[in-house]
Amino acid sequence: MGTTASQLGKELLSEYQELTFLTKQEILLAHKRFSELLTKDEKDIPNIRVPMERILTLPELKSNPFRKRICHVFSTSQHKDGSLTFEDFLDLLSAFSDSATMEIKSHYAFRIFDFDDDGTLDSDDLQTLVNCLTGDTEDTRLTSEEMRQLISNILDESDIDKDGTVNLSEFQHVISRSPDFISSFKIVL
Questions:
Q1: Comparing C-alpha atoms, which of 87, 88, 83, 174 is closest to residue 129?
Q2: Which of 119, 131, 110 is nearest to 174 (CA)?
Q3: Which terminus of the chain, N or C, has less C-beta within 10 A?
Q4: pTM to 2 decimals?
């Protein structure tokens, strides 16, 4: 059975449309997909949290190398467990939608890549980022010299104030020169 506007509630649907970059149809589809992750007993519980493990079963996230980090960034859980409410899920989809602005997309990309949540991308964050992209196996992992050189190149290119880290505005400056970023930073249900 498909999700209808009356199931979601017309007032809530209208509120969600004002708070996201998503269309009415996208919100209804998101609600349907989120509801499919719930057990029968959970369907009637308001503001239910879906565990990260279940969120990660969605095909759109399953093969994303940053899938766990994405859940952690969008989760409002006090337990920092990556679980998502429906509103968290909508925030995630909104940031990754085609309609989201470059500023929103780059803000969330920065937060996803800031693995230690300290507000900067340092060499440890960059190393983790590279390992996520290349795969952290013996066959795909860069040698320590290759990694050192790559991180040095990234910092040379993007660390404008030369403090050894990349802050949000430096990251946004680099991203603004990358025309493919906005079209590649998306998740479509």
A1: 174
A2: 110
A3: N
A4: 0.89
